[in-house]
Amino acid sequence: MKKHLRDLKPSKFDDLIAMNALYRPGPMEYIPDFIARKHGRQKITYDLPLMEERLKDTYGITVYQEQVMLLSRDLAGFTRGQSDELRKAMGKKLRDKMMKLKEKFIEGCLKNGHDRKVAEKIWTDWESFAEYAFNKSHATCYSWLAYQTAYLKANYPSEYMAAVLSRNISNITEITKFMDECRRLGIEVLSPDVNESNMTFTVNRQGNIRFGLGAIKGVGANAVAAIADEREKNGPFKDIFDFVERVNLSACNRKNIEALAQAGAFDSLPDVRREHFFAKVANDETFTEVLLRFGSKMQEDGTRVQPSLFGGSNAVAITRPEIPVAEEWSILEKLNREKELIGMYLSAHPLDRFRPEVEHLTTTGLEGLQDLQKMKDRDFSVAGLVTVAREAISKNNKKWGSFILEDFTGSYEFRLFGKDYENFLNYIKEGLSLFVRGSVQKRYNSDELEAKIKSITLLSNVKDDMLKSITLTVPLDQISDEWINDLNMLIENHKGKILIKFLIIDREKNQSVEMFSRTVKMDVNNGVIDFLKSQDISFRLN
Description:
By secondary structure, this protein is α+β, with helices and mostly antiparallel strands. Helices cover 42% and strands 17% of the residues. It is built from 20 helices and twelve strands. It is globular and about 100 Å long.
């Protein structure tokens, strides 16, 4: 992909157009045949020899609306008007009109000497995908755009992803999805920062993406413009006092500053933390209010300064207020406030310390429970943080409860009634990190599906209770003295109770052997997982 657009051969681009057109409901079932025929693994066949002229570019598979129209003329003698009528009827699901056109098509095929069964088969193929079929000009435009964006993503990944994030700046669901893609590409999405962020997402000198100030709730365009303009004119802000002395405080008011603080936009400035802005000082004022009064006074006096007869000025020095003592917020409170303003956990995630358990000991992310039909009659194990918990009384005067569990992929609300409520009552508390086992089944006396909980465990206990060993799969040719030393150092630095197993693979002889030691054990944490990934060592937690 890392080449110029003009280097793409026409035949390759034709295949790209066809795949774009096929990648839709209906036509999608033909993709394996299309690929197999393209690479010569499957013979290219035609229902009728006459069809080759129209289908040879797509390996004998009908892909475009134009092909249906042209073949209806070739095979059944349809007029141009009738073939266009067929296209419209298929695309708009006009069943009555389709039946009439089918009769005409079969009749025309028979009249031209074609076998009825073959004609019926061709029509059935068309029906299965035509309601989603592209016309070729449409597919060409999409494919050209797809190739351009693929080129940009391959060659300028940070800039491309920053543009995609900016395009979806008001859609937190899309932003979350694209931030996951940034992580996959090894691009950091950094917290907002008054010394680096602009209105939208931008790329810094290190090639990472800086969160846009415009994506913070409660920070309007005027406030962002005031910050960016002042920074552009007079350089970065040295500290929080320098910030309020310079920024237009009519545009950037108390509400804006508090939102910026909770979102972490002042974290890079020295001596001040997020909680300081909300600490109470004299006269029951918050530090933010004191800062604004100080900044306004400094700006007001600055405009009044007049040179004296002797070259001095009549300005009176204003003492900077002291930063108050403030109790540090817990990590969870800090992240929850951040999420409230940004819509997601950005600087960290409450589940980060449990990432190995969440990613490797569960059967699905919570996003997977959004479509219970796909999970019907299947067991599941999920893990996450309780972000919302509530208890209530039903119309029958019986207690019940619910909690929303959130992981790195999404969230899901579990509801507990009767004995389930009694058994799991102690887990209906915000801030708990849980490991939940259950199954998707029909509700009692109903056809509606539910995620039925079987057991709940505190996530902090899962590693000790469940994780017994880790199996490292290592190619024989990858093992060297340096590799062994690195592994020994890793084990030494992360001692624990988890047994280490090895699956050594000899690629040349196509053989493998399992090895383990009962005395060599380690912990499995984020540092270990990161090392294994950096060394391209595949692993399995048991």
